[in-house]
Amino acid sequence: MEGExxxxxxxxxxxxxxxFYGLGFAATFAGLLNMGMIPDALMVIAMAIMLGGLAxxxxxxxxxxxxxxxxxxxxxxxxxxxxxxxxxxLAPAGLFNAPMAAASATSMGFFTLVWGIIATLLxxxxxxIGVKMITVVFVVLDLTFFSLALVFFGIxxxxxxxxxxxxxxxxxxxxxxxxxxxxxxxxxxx
Length: 190
What we know:
71% of the residues lie in helices and 0% in strands. The protein has helices at 16-34, 42-65, 69-90, 105-126, 132-152, 158-183.
């Protein structure tokens, strides 16, 4: 409305760094697992639940309060993706005393393909944000989802998708660290 003034709270820090750390740690360990660098999935599941899942969802909720629709949506949905990923991996082991059959490769292929499409659509929005490193993180995230879909469809070796996932994680960890450093006056390029 004309004459209406919106006041944004600039006294609080941005939760985006926490969200990017969540993605970064979860993707880094998932990439290392898929490359065969770590022998078991326990750390990946822990990172998926606690950092990829909970930290991203909490960052998303805080960004909703700040009026950042893009950040809020991206962190919240991808946080729930990590929680869903953890559930898919834990359910066959009898999570909540209700063992389920493992997801088929075809199901997982379509699961990651659809998420890749959504991530790509969000990537287009990053061009308007003006922070190049966010676009970089989203582009490699897109490649992660599509490479995993190709793995599940039997087209690509898991190690290659693992390397792409590792790059996603490292790019996200860099961005999170840069956001923190820049907030305290230590300028890192983003």
